[in-house]
Each structure stands twice: as C-alpha cells, then as structure tokens.
Amino acid sequence: MDYKVFIDNDAEYLKWVELNETGFVVNTTRTKRKAYRVLHKASCRHVTTRQSWQGDGAFTSRDYIKICAPTIDSLRAWTRAEGESSGQFSQECASCKPWLSESYTEVSSASGGLSLENVKDLHDKYLELIKFEVEQLGVKPTEARHLIGRLGEFYCALTVNGTISHVVNQHGFDVLAQDGRRISVKTTAQKSGFVRISEKTLDKVDDLMVIQYANGRLDEVYFGNIQLAISHARYYDNLKAYELDISKARALSSAQVVATEI
Ligand SMILES: [Zn+2]
C-alpha cells in the first residue's frame, strides 16, 4: 500500500507533511507498539511543530517514528501488516480529529472493527474479570450486570460467527449473525426469575438468546425465534415489555430441539 515509514529522517518527514497537507500520519514508537499508534492529520501541529524544548530529530530520530500516507486506508493497511488485525489505531488525535475528515473510513472487518479473534480474546478477559469480581471480591453478580451483559454478547457473536452491533451503531439488537439474522442477547446472573424483552425493538430482532451466568461459566438457556419466546411470555402494558421466565425459556429450548429431531 501507499505508505511511507520515516525513521531518523526529520527533514524528509517534514517535507512530506508539507507536500501532503490532506494526508495522515501515525505516530508510534520505534518498536511500533500496538498500544501506541496514534492517528493524526498531516496538518496537525502535534506532528509538525517542534516545541521549544525539543531539539533536532524530535519527530523521527528518538523514541518515535512516523508512518505517513495520503489516505487512512493505507495506514490501516500498515497497522494490519504490523500485527493489528482490526485495522484500528490505539488512538485518534483529539486535537486534529481525523475522524471528521471527508476521507475518513471506518474499519470494515467482520465485527465492525472487532475481529473474531479480538472477540474471543475479550470474551476470555471479561470472563476472568467477572470471575475475579464475583468469586474473589464477593461482588454481587447483579452489580456486575454490565460486564455480564457484554460477556453474553461476546459469547453469542462467537457462537454464530457474528458481529456485535453496538460497534457499528445499529440499534434494537445486539448481534448480527452471518446469515443476516438479528439477535437480541439477554444475559442474567439470576438463578430463577425472568428476562425482560422490550416491545419497542421487537420488529428489529429475529432471534433471542438467553444466557445464564453461574459459577464462572455461561449456560445457554434459550436460542431461537423471538416470536416463539414472547408467545410464552407475560406482557405488561405499563412497561410495554414482555417478561419471559428463565425456567420457561429453558423448557421451550428443549421443546425446540425435540421438534427439530422429529
Ligand atoms: Zn493530531
């Protein structure tokens, strides 16, 4: 791809940014640390103006190097080639705001920026984290609801080889399966009780996955058509929502299996 790496050459680097005002620059360390790859516009003062306390070689000759390209896509290709499979940068400069550029492109990999490899990684990390919070620190699972909810989405995305929709800003469902089915994921740490399904988003969802977190692992309670699920749920007019008993969801799931076997 169309990128240039500048190491130990401030003069050539400064010439490049001057000639490519509409281009982009990634500032990274000499070792190209994945955790430090910051995207700037080529016109950003942070990558073009030497501070008084910085001597010669401030841009490419000491701890930092620069990767330059006319387009963000080329820099995404660079970061991928250097081991960041998502094509994302560790940070995008809050001063020059490259995301406001007309040529700004979102990453187009599977999970809207999260590759399945990333999702697997996140799933394992969240699970460890929740186990630590709940089992070691004695935090109530209900207080870790947000983490458990996210863990459930990762689990679902991995199961159906799908993408997590928050990342690409879709609403009403949580995971988009490869076959295009939209899945709402409900993850609960309750042993019994119910999950709530909002009526408002029903037309944006095809399937429901109910997952239970207990003793450091996830248990898939129900995965199937959401209409079937709500036909066995209670409707509350004041909440504009359905409540599906976990036990009923489980029974429904085994009934589905039996039906398919026949
Ligand atoms: Zn910047």
**CATH C-level label of the largest domain:** Alpha Beta
What's the total number of strands? 13
Poorly predicted regions: none
Order of helices and strands: EHEEEHEHHEEEEEEHEEH
What percent of residues are in strands?
15-25%
Percent of residues in helices: 25-40%
**Annotated CATH topology of the largest domain:** Trna Endonuclease, Chain: A, domain 1
Q: SS-based structural class?
A: alpha+beta
Radius of gyration computed on alpha carbons = 24 Å
Q: Give the second-level CATH assignment, the architecture of the largest domain.
A: 3-Layer(aba) Sandwich
Pfam family, one: DUF6998
InterPro entries: DUF6998
Protein name: DUF6998 domain-containing protein
Organism: Vibrio hyugaensis
